[in-house]
Automatic annotation (TrEMBL):
InterPro entries per the UniProt record, alphabetical: Beta-lactam/transpept-like (IPR012338), cNMP-bd_CS (IPR018488), cNMP-bd_dom (IPR000595), cNMP-bd_dom_sf (IPR018490), Glutaminase (IPR015868), RmlC-like_jellyroll (IPR014710), STAS_dom (IPR002645), STAS_dom_sf (IPR036513)
Protein name per UniProt: Glutaminase
Chain ranges of the STAS domain: 340-416
Gene: glsA
Taxonomic source organism: Cyanobium gracile UHCC 0139
Assigned keywords, A-Z: Acetylation, Hydrolase
Length: 617
């Protein structure tokens, strides 16, 4: 199969959102700042940046615009970082104002702005930074934003001049703050810094990285830098949740439930703590000064895939528990030498991925990212879901689509231990109709090996062997033709139906079985931590393999049950015939014991390797 990128359902979701809202024509581009009025109303970009350092984007995500009020939470964070919590609390409150972004919303007694997300609070925060470092404030600002975005940003000079020339209301707010001694020096340098911070040029991708940095408790997941501390990030996210969307903040938190901040240039930044950052860019604004398309995208993400903070599921660990190649774990079905030779060069066409935790949007995103990285050589995917605790209905459709898209690209998908996964039925398809599910991981591993054998091995009818029925039997391949002929005279052929018990635990070890056709399972009852006894398959034997040899050679009782899982037949050597053969043809017995010793050694060797690998996989 040619190496090609696999479809990613998260990227497809962004494509659907972009297509759904591109035609929205409501809203108007901000025109109270002349430079902003030049924006193209058709510009539209969406970006998701994850805590794992992955980017999904569509549309005008690399087009630069100015950050405007989206700078406010970051400026407040910088003020907290530069000064202290207590000092900033003496200058700015953290209460929702319920008023427009440019309202002169000050406490009538103290003169403190209601919160840092309105213009008055942002100007007050800029003033504290400016007073702390009057000559280096602009450089400090740009260095800080470079850490947040993961690249150097610059100030859009034309927008800066336009804002400064028309910002009379903001200038009035600055002087009013000076009157209350919130700004303790000339307000003009602070206002200049405020106009510059609003005019920083960003792209939608930059905003998503900055949002992901907040999602990661102040650590940039793309650079590894830590521009903000955990405690500052928590405070900033709380303010974004309660105040970030101005006089629309209460409705936003109720309807969308995601900490967010908007800017009048058309940007919206939203944060799912611990998981991801979302950014949109679309200049037309609603009456609250928020991007119409940006609000619509966030609403849809919240409702459609369960991103609301108030609709999250507990997940302690990473979604991908383990991921490894087929050569690193084999099934407990013992294979003939011929089958092993066929499988050996193709085992890595099988991939095993163990999933755990809650498969909500974030969990499915992690799984989708892992599946997209699958090599084009992978033809069989085993998805083990034993440790999945929940798959919410809102996100299960994404899982359905991801798996079915992968199958459409030629990958056979086998689910194991999927009992806790609700497979959602769609109008025309469902996972359960298209993908095989197995109760045990080992059964899925065996099925994957069988698929490889069906693709790469010629069909062989076990009943069309040589006349004596033993010349093609692998375990006795080391014996001469004469020795095999002598053996066949002492062995009897016994047929079994599916479900027949061939050996019971406690039976005397007086028979040796050589499989001619069919399939036989050895099972053992194991008591687990829950106090219950479970029947566990230890091995499966097919044509060319023998079983019962340890009890037969050691003359000890059987320690496990062996059952026919498919109709078949075995050549059986009873101990009486073996004793007679020992007396009449000791050379045949010696050859047989050598063959059995080699077979037991090979099985023990393979078992040891599998047990060692289990420590790591």
């Amino acid at each position: 199969m040619p190496d090609q990128p696999h479809a990613n359902v998260i990227q497809e979701l962004l494509g659907e959102l972009h297509a759904s809202f591109s035609g929205v024509r409501e809203g108007r581009v901000a025109d109270y700042i002349p430079e902003l009025a030049k924006a193209c109303p058709d510009d539209f970009g969406i970006v998701i940046a994850t805590s794992g350092g992955r980017i999904y984007e569509i549309g005008d995500t690399r087009k630069e615009f100015t950050i405007q009020s989206i700078s406010k939470p970051f400026i407040y964070a910088l003020a907290l970082k530069t000064l202290s919590f207590d000092f900033m609390a003496s200058k700015i409150d953290v209460e929702p104002s319920g008023e427009a972004f440019n309202a002169i919303s000050l406490d009538p007694d103290s003169g403190k702005p209601r919160n840092p997300m309105i213009n008055a609070g942002a100007i007050a925060a800029s003033a504290q930074i400016c007073d702390a470092d009057p000559s280096g404030a602009v450089d400090l600002l740009l260095d800080y934003f470079a850490e947040l975005a993961g690249r150097r940003l610059s100030i859009h000079e034309a927008v800066y001049r336009s804002e400064k020339e028309t910002g009379h209301r903001n200038r009035a707010i600055g002087h009013l703050l000076r009157n209350f001694n919130i700004i303790e020096s000339d307000p003009e340098p602070a206002l200049d810094l405020y106009f510059r911070q609003c005019a920083i040029g960003v792209t939608c991708r930059d905003l998503a990285v900055m949002a992901a940095t907040l999602a990661c408790q102040g650590r940039n997941p793309f650079t590894g830098g830590q521009p903000l501390s955990h405690d500052i990030t928590v405070r900033v996210l709380a303010l974004m949740g309660t105040c970030g969307m101005y006089d629309f903040a209460g409705q936003w938190l109720h309807d969308v439930g995601i900490p967010a901040k908007s800017g009048v240039a058309g940007g919206v930044l939203a944060v799912i703590p611990g998981r991801l950052g979302i950014a949109t860019y679309s200049p037309p604004l609603d009456n609250f000064g928020n991007s119409v398309r940006g609000v619509a995208v966030c609403r849809q993400l919240s409702a459609g895939v369960g991103l609301s903070l108030f609709n999250q599921y507990f997940q302690a660990d990473a979604t991908i528990r383990r991921s490894y190649h087929g050569s690193q774990r084999k099934s407990r079905r013992w294979r003939s030498e011929r089958e092993l030779e066929i499988l050996a060069p193709h085992r890595d066409e099988v991939r095993i991925i163990h999933v755990q935790g809650v498969l909500d949007f974030g969990g499915i995103e992690q799984l989708a990212a892992e599946l997209v990285r699958l090599s084009g050589d992978v033809r069989v995917l085993i998805l083990d879901l034993a440790h999945v605790t929940e798959c919410p209905m809102e996100s299960s459709g994404l899982l359905d689509r991801q798996l079915c898209a992968l199958e459409d690209q030629g990958v056979e998908i086998l689910l194991s231990r999927a009992g806790r996964l609700p497979l959602v039925t769609r109008s025309d398809w469902t996972i359960s109709d298209r993908i095989d599910a197995y109760a045990h991981l080992d059964s899925a591993l065996e099925a994957a090996e069988n698929l490889l054998l069906s693709w790469y091995a010629p069909v062989v009818d076990a009943e069309n062997g040589a006349a004596d029925g033993l010349t093609e039997q692998g375990v006795l391949a080391a014996l001469s033709e004469e020795h095999r002929r002598i053996l066949v005279d002492r062995m009897v052929r016994r047929s079994f139906a599916a479900g027949d018990v061939v050996i019971r635990r406690g039976d005397p070890g007086d028979e040796l079985f050589l499989v001619r056709s069919g399939s036989f399972d050895i099972a053992l009852d194991i008591r687990t931590g829950d106090g219950l006894s479970h029947s566990t398959r230890l091995a499966t034997f097919g044509p060319g393999l023998c079983f019962g040899e340890i009890g037969f050679v050691a003359q000890t009782p059987r320690t496990a049950d062996i059952t026919a899982t498919q109709p078949g037949a075995c050549w059986v050597l009873h101990r009486d015939a073996f004793e007679e053969l020992s007396a009449s043809h000791p050379d045949v017995v010696i050859a047989l014991l050598k063959a059995l010793t080699c077979d037991i050694g090979a099985k023990l060797s393979q078992t040891s390797v599998q047990l060692t690998l289990m420590e790591h996989y």
